[in-house]
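Please go through the protein record below and see whether the fold suits the sequence. Record follows.
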Amino acid sequence: MKNILWYRKPADYWDEALPVGNGRLGAMVYGRIEEERIQLNEESFWSGAPTNRVNPDASGQLKEIQKLVLDKKVPRAQELALMALSGTPQSQRCYQTLGELRIFQEAVSCTDYRRELNLNDAVVRTGYTQAETVFTQEVFASKPDDCIVIRKRAEGDGKLCFRCRFDRKQLIDHAFAVDDHTISYDYCNGGMWFSGVLSAVTDVGKIRTVGEFLQVDGAKEVILLFSVVTSYRSKCPFEDALSIVRKAESHSFDCLYEAHRKDYQELYGRVKLNFGEETENCVHDETNNAECMEIEKTAKMDIPTDERLEQMKKDDGEPDAGLLELYFQYGRYLMISGSRPGGLPLTLQGLWNADITPPWGSRYTVNINLQMNYWPVDVCNLSECGEPFFELLKRVVKSGQITAREMYQCRGFVVHHNTDLYADTAPQDHYIPASYWVMGGGWLATHVWEHYLFTKDVKFLKNYFEILREAVVFYRDFLMEDEQERLLICPSVSPENSYYTETGASVSMCAGATMDTEILQELFEDYLSAAKVLEMEDALVEEVRAMKRKLPEFRTGKYGQLMEWLEDYEEAEPGHRHISHLYGVFPGNQIDGMKAAGCVCNEKDGSQCVDDLGDSKKLAKAAKTSLERRLRYGGGHTGWSCAWIILLWSRFGDADKAYENLIKLLTQSTFSNLMDAHPFTCERGRVFQIDGNMGAITAICEMLVQSQNNRVVLLPALPKQLATGQVQGIRIRGNAEISMEWRDGRLVYLELYAQSDFCSKLYYKDYCLLIRLQAGERKRIEEKNFLQGSFMEKGV
């Protein structure tokens, strides 16, 4: 069966375990025999309580800091900013693990061991044979029943005998038996309580509690049910957790499983992806190509996932089309499992975190990481999973209004490069290259318009329009004019890079970084477009138009690169992981890589291309030079950065470079469980960050179809290694779904399903068609329609 991760041995480390989640509850399953470990998370369990960390000296020192930056006394400005702008205390709250469920049984000698995660039904299964008895364990996180379900079975003469308990080392306040088949534990970290409840149900055999242990003897099948509730969500965590478990106990395993599977498949089943692959042993004709491809894929599916990854490294990225399909759907699985309506958004580690004090606090980092987490939701047909992002953003606006007023004496809202469970918007860390950056709110707000473009949901746009407006109002107050009457952000940085001053000092603070201008251009245009849709013409609209005209122009530097700062500084790290000044290529739209690549020119549809390509080509060329320069000096060495690079190459229409970096991400920045691996100073040298997974699956979609700038481009960056394939159900801007098949690099057919009235130009190779569809209409278009220059416009 397709889309299964599987292994021949248990996990030795957390980053080899397999994840399950229902949006609220998460678990990492190790699949061990003698001592099973299931690490647990609940999305709202964070350290501490909410607090106002705004530095009381910020507003009084801001003008001095700005003056020092403009006078090029940047080292002194940075010293003052560290003291005057940093949050007090410097750190926000961090996301924490609940602990682990440990299941102990006698050591056994076994055969036929297999551990797997089936993406088709979101279940982790472990099985082995011992003395002619087949032992199995199934684990899933049920959204309908709001609990983690574990079924253990013994098929044969053997029986189940084990004991289990919670483990959080010394960080548990109470562990006790609720009754003869239920145990509970709880903890208070000084600001947040949680209570966890585990119960066991069996057909035969005995269940009893001994101390903090739940013990099972002589059973053939046991169902363990776990849930936890925090004080963030409830005034009575224990009672509510117990109620969840008791309700689940009233259902059979089959009922629990079927409700879970149906709920999950409603989201997961919307998109299908198949990359065809030919083999040398096949005779190449239309009658057997598909069969040969399937034989090749089936053979590789018989190889464990970790071995397939290792083989890809040895083969220098030789195609394993099935593994790429698996990786794509695994990213969608993580989104469905980690982010659901009514819940909280994905942290740096999504829903899954094993530590009390995790790397970077496992917070919401908003100088790219949180945004990247949610890039795929619309295009991957999981729009509902983006709701937690927007609900957090509403709370960030309220908190950010206080921060904007107290720190900068500005209206609107501001958020710096991090936020947390409590929507804290004061600067995080004493980290000059990032902490005092004020563009987080502007970037986050652009997601409102982007979601509207995909859905055409006017009700949504009206509900979240205030986020766009409040972001604009902050910059209306914060922007300052320089001597050339340009509007600049000051102080600012180009996250998280640094440059050399004329005196040779390495600094980060500046005025008017290129990324500032790109985000402001995008935000202002989004605001104006949203106001037009909602028919909101007021004084602010005119002010925004005027501000937009006064933003700095993009400039080319001495290397032919797009300048990252307002002046052509020498970079301290030319191979830096952030490529912030290329925001305008992706996720922004100001720099049009498709036009420069020739993907949307020379239209053969009987009309004349009226776009002036001179400036577009020049700007895109400079951006491409910047990307090449970053890579030449070692850029893209983290998973999320590599994913961003794939997206950029896709926007430039460079299929070879996009594919090369996709393979690099898989072979250099991916754990054996397909989670993204980020460098970190720890035992393993790397830690999980979910942004790399989410950026990469967005990039795979961008390689197949792009829909920015009021057009749709088909197969814009299709690599030769994936020259044959099919995709169903991905979404494009304009509120339409797209399905298509391609063979040997050429389009076989395209099917569009419009969920609202749809009008766009479709580009394929050097050809262009105009299509108009009514809401609910489907249209099939074949390659010959493009080659003949036929219009698909309704009524023509």
